[in-house]
Write a structure and sequence with these properties.
- The chain is α/β, with parallel strands linked by helices.
- The chain contains 15 helices and 18 strands.
- Strand 17 and strand 18 form a beta hairpin.
- The two termini are 16 Å apart.
C-alpha cells in the first residue's frame, strides 16, 4: 500500500511524514513538487509544493503536477496536509486535488491537532481555547486569518460545496458518523468539515471514513487525521486478520458493554442458544456447535470483528439448578457444557476459517478456562494490563499457540471496556 501526502509547507509535511513512519511506513519527503521517490522501498511520500503563500495559478499548477505524479506512483491513499491554523490556499488546493482525482473523491477536513492545542467545535477553530481570528496567527502579514469559522473560511476559497458535521454527531461513534457523512455526500458536498477536540474524536472520524467504500476519501488535516485514517484503512484492508470475541457472561454490565460496542463498530454476531448447549445429548450439542461455526465463518466474509455470545436479547437465563435436579446432574456440569460449547465454536472457527485470526477476546472466567482447555493450551503469557482486571497476553502451546488474547471478568470494566479491548487488539496488528 502506498500513501501520498501533498503538503504546502516542508516542515509541516515532515510532521505528517513522521506520523506515517511511526505506523511502520518507509517515508520520504520530496523537496521538489515535481518529484516522486526513486527508491522502491519507499511506500509513503510527502510532496512539498511550497505553495502556502503562492499565487492561485502557481498553487494549482503545483497541485496538478503532484497529483499526476502520485497517480503514476500508484498511490492508494491521497492526503492533503494543511496548516493547523488554516493559513494558505487551502480551498484552492483542495479544489485542484478534487479536479485531478476520481470524480467520486470527497475531502474530509479536520484542522484539529490536540497535541498542539488546536481544537474545533461548532465549526470554530480554537488555539489554546481562543478563536483563531483573535490569536497571533490572525496577523499573518501575507494572508491574515479573518474568520474562525472554518466552513465559511474554506467556503470563500473553494468552488465546491462545503458542509459541516458537529461534535455531537462525532460523539455518537463511527457508525453514526458514517451515516452523517453519507448524508452530506448525497446532498452534493465535496468538502466536509468535521468537529474534533480530542485524539479519540479524530480516531472516530478516521474509522468512519474507512466504512465508506463508494467514494475516494481524502483526509485534509495537519497530520492526526491522516495518521488515524491510514491506520484504520490498513486494518480494514488487512482482510486476512480478524478478531473473535467469545462472551458467555450474562451480567447486565457485560450486556451493556456489548451494546456499546455494537453502537460504535460494525461487527458480525453469532448468537448461541445456551439451552441447546446445556444438554448431555452429545449429538444435539455437536449439531448446535457446527451450525454456529458455519454461521460464524460466513459472517467473517463481511466483518473483521466476530462476536459469539449467549447474550441474545430474547434469550432467557437458564435455571441451572432446576435443570440439574431434573436430570440428575450438577449445575457445574451444565455450566461447563455451555462454556465448553462456546470455546469449541471459537476453536473450530480459528481452525477452519480461510482468514487469519489476529486476536481473541473472552469475557467470563469459565469461558476463558474452557478456551484454554478446549484449545489444549498450556496457559497464557501475560503481557500488559489493558484496563483494571482486563489483561492482554498470548496463548502458550496447543491449537492457539502465539495467538493474542484479552481476558475480562463479566463484571469488570466500564461500559466502553469491550470497545477499548477491541481497539487494543487492532493496534497490535
Amino acid at each position: 500500500m502506498k500513501i501520498g501526502v501533498i503538503a504546502d509547507d516542508l516542515t509541516g509535511g515532515n510532521g505528517t511524514g513522521v506520523k506515517l513512519n511511526n505506523l511502520g511506513f518507509n517515508v520520504a519527503t520530496m523537496i521538489n513538487y515535481d518529484s516522486i521517490p526513486s527508491n522502491e522501498i519507499i511506500n509513503a511520500t510527502v510532496v512539498n509544493t511550497d505553495s502556502r503563500y503562492s499565487s492561485e495559478r502557481v498553487a494549482k499548477n503545483r497541485i496538478k503536477t503532484a497529483v499526476h505524479n502520485l497517480k503514476e506512483w500508484n498511490t492508494d491513499i491521497f492526503c492533503k496536509r494543511i496548516d493547523s491554523t488554516v493559513r494558505g490556499n487551502i480551498g484552492i488546493e483542495i479544489d485542484e486535488m478534487l479536479n485531478q482525482l476520481d470524480e467520486e473523491a470527497i475531502v474530509i477536513l479536520v484542522p484539529t491537532y490536540p497535541e498542539s492545542n488546536r481544537t474545533m467545535v461548532g465549526g470554530y477553530l480554537l488555539l489554546h481555547n481562543v478563536p483563531i481570528e483573535l490569536s497571533d496567527v490572525s496577523m499573518d502579514p501575507v494572508k491574515p486569518i479573518t474568520s474562525s469559522y472554518v466552513p465559511e473560511l474554506i467556503g470563500q476559497q473553494t468552488e465546491n460545496k462545503v458542509s459541516h458535521i458537529p461534535l455531537s454527531q462525532v460523539l455518537k461513534g463511527e457508525k453514526n458518523l458514517k451515516q452523517q457523512m453519507n448524508h452530506h455526500i448525497d446532498n452534493g458536498s465535496k468538502i466536509i468539515v468535521v468537529d474534533a477536540i480530542t485524539s479519540e474524536n479524530i480516531e472516530v472520524i478516521g474509522k468512519a471514513m474507512v466504512l465508506i467504500d463508494h467514494k475516494l476519501l481524502v483526509p485534509a488535516d495537519p497530520g492526526p487525521l491522516t495518521e488515524t485514517y491510514v491506520k484504520s484503512y490498513s486494518i480494514k484492508n488487512l482482510k486476512q486478520k480478524k478478531i473473535l470475541l467469545t462472551v458467555g457472561s450474562v451480567t447486565q454490565n457485560s450486556h451493556n458493554q456489548l451494546k456499546y460496542l455494537q453502537e460504535k463498530r460494525e461487527i458480525g454476531k453469532v448468537y448461541v442458544d445456551s439451552k441447546q448447549l446445556a444438554t448431555d445429548d452429545e449429538n444435539k450439542w455437536e449439531k448446535t456447535i457446527r451450525e454456529c461455526v458455519e454461521h460464524g465463518k460466513d459472517m467473517l466474509h463481511e466483518n473483521n470483528i466476530l462476536l459469539m455470545t449467549t447474550d441474545h436479547p430474547n434469550n432467557e437465563i437458564i435455571n441451572l439448578d432446576y435443570l440439574a435436579k431434573q436430570n440428575g446432574k450438577s449445575q457445574d456440569f451444565y455450566a461447563k457444557r455451555i462454556s465448553d460449547g462456546l470455546a469449541k465454536i471459537t476453536r473450530l472457527i480459528i481452525e477452519e476459517s480461510e482468514y487469519h485470526i489476529g486476536g481473541c477476546f473472552s469475557s467470563g472466567g469459565d469461558v476463558t478456562a474452557s478456551l484454554c482447555a478446549i484449545g489444549k493450551t498450556e496457559g497464557i503469557e501475560l503481557k500488559d494490563e489493558v484496563l483494571p482486571l482486563i489483561s492482554y497476553g498470548v496463548f502458550l502451546g496447543g491449537y492457539f499457540e502465539g495467538l493474542p488474547i484479552i481476558t475480562k471478568g463479566g463484571t469488570a470494566g466500564e461500559v466502553d471496556a469491550v470497545y477499548t479491548a477491541v481497539k487494543y487488539l487492532e493496534n497490535k496488528f
